[in-house]
Protein: Multimodular transpeptidase-transglycosylase
Amino acid sequence: MPAVRTLLLVGVDPFRDRLWDTGYRGMTEDGQYYGFSLALGSAEVTLLEQADAYRSLANGGRWSPLRLTADAPLAATRKVTTPQAAGIVADMMADPNARAATFGLDSALRLPFWAAVKTGTSKAMRDNWCIGFSDRYTVAVWVGNLEGDPMRAVSGTSGAAPVWRDLMLALNADRKVTAPPRPAGIEQRAIRFANHVEQPRLEYFLAGTAQTEIASAPQAARRPRITNPVAGSVYAIDPDIPPDRQRLAIGVSGEVTAHRLLLDRRDLGAADSQPQVLAAPGQHRLRLVDVGGHVVDQVLFTVR
Structure:
């Protein structure tokens, strides 16, 4: 999972300290207390903390305490991330094509003007979040039961997002919304994928880091093995996403023309057919077998 991999590279304690600097003052424990699940949002935070953190992205990486009244004094801002990092993250959150595979192109998250947005749902559907910003307004919406009871089949997309959309439309009804200017130090490059596995497109990069062509090593140069899922992986079913869009894509590498995939006792067919499966909650064993029926690789993974 990219978020967890990033946390492995950065370190839990530095990441926790960065969150503290970004106003999450309820996080009083050290990084080891939260562990790597911190990348997936395991810490308890408030709606105001979330809103202010997203506001720092809207302000180019500069954070300041929220004011609850218009006549409250303005506090000094401080840098919590670079303008370049904030700009690239905002562009990701504002890109309807980036979330089309999950939410479709016509969801409550799509507005008739530029806006960056993210939804979330806590464990057992107790909390729905939808937080985002235009060039002037940051709006954060929480939906849930005040007693903390779980809701029934209500996710951030179906619960909080429609409220967020209505508020954003009302706030920006009589003004022209423009996308924020691109910070210096960011460059746009066209990228393409070998074998046309994805459509060519334009992407933003930190200056000097652009990769314009993405290709895999030749299959014949790799030994037959399962590349996805990784052994020991734990997958959580996301209530924000329709079940049919949460299929697990099975990945293999190497010359596997005559190999087959077996999930538990189910034959998934040819290993090079790129199957996608809906796995039920529980522990599963995925095996890669050759033409003689010998297991050449296997992984265990869990779905929750």
